[in-house]
Amino acid sequence: MLVKNKKIDFVLLGFLLLFLGISLITIESASTYLPSYLGNLPLKQLIFYGIGFILMFLIWKIGYESLCNLAYPFYILSVIALVLLFPFGTTVNSSTCWFQIPGIGSIQPSEFMKVALILVLSKETIKFRQKKEISWLEEVKYLGKILTLVLIPSVLTFLEPDTGAVLIYLIITLFMIFLSGLRLRWFILGGTIAILGIGSFFYLYFGERETFINLFGTQLFYRIERLLSWQKGDSYQLENALAAVGSAGLLGHGFNKTPLYFPESGTDFIFAVFASNFGYLGSLALILLLFLFDSYLLYIAFKNKDTLAFYLIIGTFSILLYQQIQNIGMTLGMLPITGITLPFISYGGSSLLSYFLLIGIVLSIRKEKDKRITSFKTKKT
Question: Taking the complete model, does pTM exceed 0.85, yes or no?
């Protein structure tokens, strides 16, 4: 008996359509306080979603393995794009993170670097995992490759400066390393070095500020100062976001009735807009939806254990989970404000398209696995 091959994962598509509806509604509400020169943001977001769906289906059609064959060219092009930002990028709020293209808008290379890193780190990790005998020298080689691959874009992105993107690069790397099969000694060594390094850094920042400025410069000092401002509760943006969320009650103020203005309401602080409109119950429903989406990605990942597909999905999962926790946490004053958006909900072209590239890979993995299962069952029949 032949088994019909499953063409596409409609569960993933269902999640994306729900995110689309939530995103458009919330961006429309956020637009109340945004300047008119930004244009029709819900319409722009709908166009980005449309382009995203096209990209996703293209990846699904050609297959994730074909894309992975281009992993290193994609990585190199992404690095070149980060370098070209310095002479040709557009500076907004003291950060040079975008190329401004007339008639199209802005493109943020660091968003696509996330995809490139997942591709190259996944390839290196599965290559390491599949070695018959793993000596300490092989472990050193693997760590050297991984750290080099992540260090190059991290330095370039940090200099833009875009601290939030650098943190995402590091999160992807940590997930890959933890699941690579490295022996415990490397984690003990790495943890010790990290504790000593971070401890020394913050000792200088809090205790020897003059020395800190002499070593790292005033720009980094003020960047750390802004990063830690959430602890002091003196951020105008955070204060208004907390007031909007805190006054919402169980059911919220209602659609398009955000009570207060705060900057970046359509991007970094979009969760505050949603929470103020739909209250605690609406916020819990959104968090539950994100949890189910992440859990489904993990379910797919562990059905492909010890394969390239596993690491590709884990990389995707690590980005989404970190950004969700960071975005919602900073909105509620629980984490530092780092300029991290809420995936699939916040307004933004480059970030949204990068997510669709990753989900296209996941859809392709589902298709390829279904093909293998169908083929096996057909032969058995």
Answer: yes
